[in-house]
Amino acid sequence: MKQPRRFDHVDTWVFDLDNTLYPHHVNLWQQVDKRIGEFVGRHLKLPPDEARVIQKDYYRRYGTTMRGMMTEHGISADDFLRYVHQIDHSPLEPNPAMGAAIASLPGRKLILTNGSAKHADAVLSRLGLATHFEAVFDIIAAELEPKPAPQTYQKFLGRHGVDPARSAMFEDLARNLVVPHLLGMTTVLVVPDGTREVVREDWELEGRGEAHVDHVTDDLTGFLRGLS
Hints:
Elements: E1 12-15, H1 28-44, H2 48-62, H3 65-73, H4 77-84, H5 96-103, E2 108-112, H6 117-127, E3 135-137, H7 150-160, E4 167-171, H8 178-183, E5 186-190, E6 215-217, H9 220-227
Parallel strand pairs: 1-2, 1-4, 2-3, 4-5, 5-6
């Protein structure tokens, strides 16, 4: 059996944001998910149940519902992002233990998210992690092409001068680790700890046994401590 990639060569640490840097059971994304459904319903003049079917279909096919709405209906990305990220970030609490674990990693730390920089800034501020990251590469920097599109990772690597062979990627969606693994990154899937209810689609929680997933953890802080 092929051995998972190690971390002793890694000098750049790349993190997804939502459901990765905070626990799945916080269900912060549920607020965004609800507002996405509202946006789809209002724009397409559909009842909530029909809007949700379209929302989830576009999410799965296009990487984000926003991309699907842009492609299929020509909506404005600015309008979409402005609406769906108007949420209450107060469920997030400072996490100094994770901050210390991230700070102890050797090298650079970056965020790669399908969300907006404004949303990322709000999340990192609530978690007390903002000072630990060099930069946020968001959906605008990706020119509105979300993960798992290969060109998004290439844009990220180019903009920040990242060598994928010396990098690690932490994500909560296994499908978003396929391209990083192909590029040579060490990949880590962050999964729910199983002790509390999480609001996710079944497919979002799949993939932990796939070949492109080098490591799986339900305790990111503990995992990072083990590396340092």
